[in-house]
Structures are given as C-alpha cells and as structure tokens.
Design brief:
There is one protein chain. With 393 residues, the chain is α/β, with parallel strands linked by helices. The chain folds into two domains: 21-197 and 380-389, 3-Layer(aba) Sandwich (Rossmann fold); 207-377, Rossmann fold. The chain is built from 14 helices and 13 strands. Strand 8, helix 7 (242-251) and strand 9 (254-258) form a beta-alpha-beta unit. Helix 2 packs across helix 14 (382-389) and helix 6 (212-220) packs across helix 9 (294-300). It starts with 20 loop residues before the first helix and ends with a helix.
Length: 393
C-alpha cells in the first residue's frame, strides 16, 4: 500500500470556515469552480477518479483505463469512474465524443467531488470533444491530476498542428510511448512514459498446437485445419489500413478476419473494400451467429495483422506475442519504437518470408517475442510504475 503525503493544515474558526482571507483567495485561484467537497488524502487510502469519453469498450483507451483501475486498487486506492458513455459510476453525457453540448462545470465538480486524484484518459489529449475538454481542464485547475495521453492532436491529420495540450503545476503528464513524451517536451511540457501492459502469465499455445475451443471457432467460420486465417483485431478506420490487411491475407492464401466495427463514417469504404477484396473476408465478433471473444479469436487465427499507418501504441503488437502468433505490422511510427525493444515481426513487404515460416513454424520466434513481452510489458509491473509517477496530493 502506498502512503501519500498530507496536505497543508487548514485553520478554521468556530463556524468551520477557513479563518485567513489569504487562504480563501488561494482556494479560489486553485479551484475556480469550487474546492473539492472533502480531502481524504491525509489517510493511506486515496480515491482515484478515472475520467474518459467512454469506458468499457474494446478500444485501446478503454482497455488500458481498466488496467489502470485494477493497478490503483492493487496500490490500495479506491477507484471511481466518470465517463460520457459506457459502464461508469458517474455518467456525464456531455463528456461523450459526439455530445451536442459539453457538461456544465457544476456537473463535473459533483462527479469528481470525492476524488483526491483525477486520471484523465485522453479527454484533454485529442480534441474529439474540445468544449468538454476545456470545461474539464478548468475544473481540474489546481487539483492533483494525471493526464494519460494515448494520442496527441498534432499526430492526427484532421486536427490543427498547433492545437495545445492543457497544463497545470499540479498535474502529471503520462504518455504511452516515448515519441509522445519527446513531442510534449518540445512544447515545454514534461511527461513520463508508462507503456501499456499485458497479462503475460497465461500465454496461448502456438497455432499448430491449438486446442478444441479454437478449432471450434475455425469450424464455425468454415475453416479446416489446413486453412490459414489472418486476424486484424482492430476497428475499421482509415488509419487501420484494412486494405493492407486484406492484401497480406491474399498473399498468404488466407481468410481475412476484421474483428471490430466500422467507425467515424468508414462504413461505406469498408463495404467497397469487402466487395473487391482479394481474399475471403469475415467481419465482426459474431461471424457465425454467436459472439466470439477476443481470446478465442486470437486462438483461432494463424497470423495477427496490425497494418496501421498510425497507432498511439497498438496493443495487438504485444498481444500477438502473448498469444504466440506471428505478427504482420504496418509502418506506423510507434511500431519502430516497440520493435527496438527486441520483437521480431514481419513487415507488410515480408509475406514471402512469413509464408515460409507458416509452412515450417519455428517456435523459437514465438518464444523470443513472448520473453520480450514478459520482460518489458507485463501487467504485474503496472502498479509499481504508477506508484512512481503519481503527483503529490
């Protein structure tokens, strides 16, 4: 359990009000929308609020937010969740990406009233709902907060390159990759990098030794033991390069399975790609009438594809190692950063080499990648990494 520092003592009069007018003015400056209702962080257990556009989904931000919540609980903290949509302790609809109007400041103040520390998951990173981000930043002024940056505005072509990231002396900035940390430093914001983590303690057997559950999923897709299956476990967006995944599957003589839905208006383009696909295509988590979980999808596939042109991190890159599957990876910048840690992957231009590997699988490659993942991306290390970067309360 992590013990946190106590705040300054507060002198009160008989009515319970802070006695010194200077203290009142400091409070007004730090908390423009009113001071937090109570201060628990003088004890050993602090309350952490996770605040996001949405929670509970399959996108990388929601997945990593759930891991952080579990890690804070390991540290002995109480966790509450605040989001615009999805399963959350406090739903604030104005935080949702497509909200017609931002939340009122009072609404956020109330939702975060019990929190000693607020962790902001991408709301103040990408301007997907800039009005909501502005309100949240003002509400958090002067309060201990961690801004967990999965992406930054200048990394996406649809946002103006000069879009700023808010900052405050009481905040800590945390990135999921070194590229973003360096880019924030160039803009005068100090940040620390905490990479995404994974359960590396229960790796899956290689595809050529798959179990009955995986075989049943493959059978439901109409695939036999000798048929190849390439899984792209992402949503369908322009930056996910679905066409690249389909082309890789075609070169391998495989069926292509895109697990996630089309988003951000990509549906018509996905329909066009499927209609002209060079390989058989399976779409979604219910391809044969019944839901298939991510673990079973990984178990059923022979190859994982992440052909993206941009990812803030790209969880399938590491998940492929834990699942003991070879990875086809695209040229997104953070992929090079991850590969430099020791992974052995196949680029989009390496399909002939991957075809040879599939014909004669070499477990040494799979075990090497699993060892890299376990040494550098293990979920068991996350709580300790978070304890090192928390701001003083």
């Amino acid at each position: 359990m992590v013990h946190v520092s106590t705040g300054p003592s507060r002198t009160t009069d008989s009515s319970g009000r802070v006695g010194a007018s200077s203290a009142e003015s400091v409070t007004a400056r730090r908390y423009p929308f009113g001071a937090p209702a109570r201060y628990h962080y003088r004890g050993a257990i602090a309350t952490v609020a996770l605040c996001s556009f949405r929670l509970g989904g399959s996108d990388g931000v929601a997945v990593e937010a759930a891991k952080w919540a579990a890690a804070f609980e390991v540290l002995g903290h109480r966790v509450v969740t605040v989001a615009g949509e999805g399963p959350a302790d406090h739903l604030v609809p104005g935080l949702a990406i497509d909200a017609p109007e931002p939340p009122a400041a009072a609404e956020l103040v109330g939702a975060l009233a019990a929190a000693d520390l607020v962790v902001v998951e991408n709301v103040c990173s990408l301007p997907l709902n800039p009005a909501a981000a502005g309100v949240l930043a003002r509400v958090l002024a002067g309060r201990p907060a961690v801004l967990h940056h999965h992406d930054l505005p200048w990394q996406r072509p649809q946002f103006p390159p000069g879009t700023p990231v808010p900052d405050d002396p009481r905040w800590r900035h945390v990135t999921v990759n070194e590229l973003s940390r360096a880019q924030l430093a160039e803009r005068g914001i100090e940040a620390r990098c905490v990479v995404n983590t994974f359960d590396t303690g229960n790796p899956r057997p290689p595809a050529h030794r798959r179990g009955r559950a995986a075989a049943a999923v493959r059978a439901s897709l109409g695939l036999g033991d000798g048929d190849r299956l390439v899984l792209q476990p992402t949503r369908a967006l322009a930056r996910k390069n679905v066409a690249g995944g389909m082309a890789a599957a075609a070169e391998l003589g495989a069926t292509y399975w895109l697990l996630g839905p089309a988003e951000d208006g990509y549906g018509p383009e996905l329909d066009r790609l499927v209609a002209s696909a060079p390989a058989p295509v399976v779409l979604g988590r219910e391809p044969a009438g019944g839901p298939v979980g991510i673990e079973d999808a990984y178990g059923a596939c022979d190859v994982v594809a992440l052909p993206s042109t941009w990812e803030g991190f790209g969880n399938p890159a590491v998940e492929s190692a834990v699942q003991r599957r070879p990875l086809v990876i695209g040229p997104y910048p953070v992929a090079a950063e991850l590969a430099a840690r020791g992974f052995r992957w196949f680029g989009l231009g390496d399909m002939a080499a991957l075809d040879r590997w599939l014909a004669e699988p070499d477990d040494d490659l799979l075990e090497h990648n699993l060892a890299v993942a376990d040494a550098q991306f293990a979920g068991r290390d996350l709580a300790g990494r978070l304890a090192e970067i928390l701001p003083p309360l």
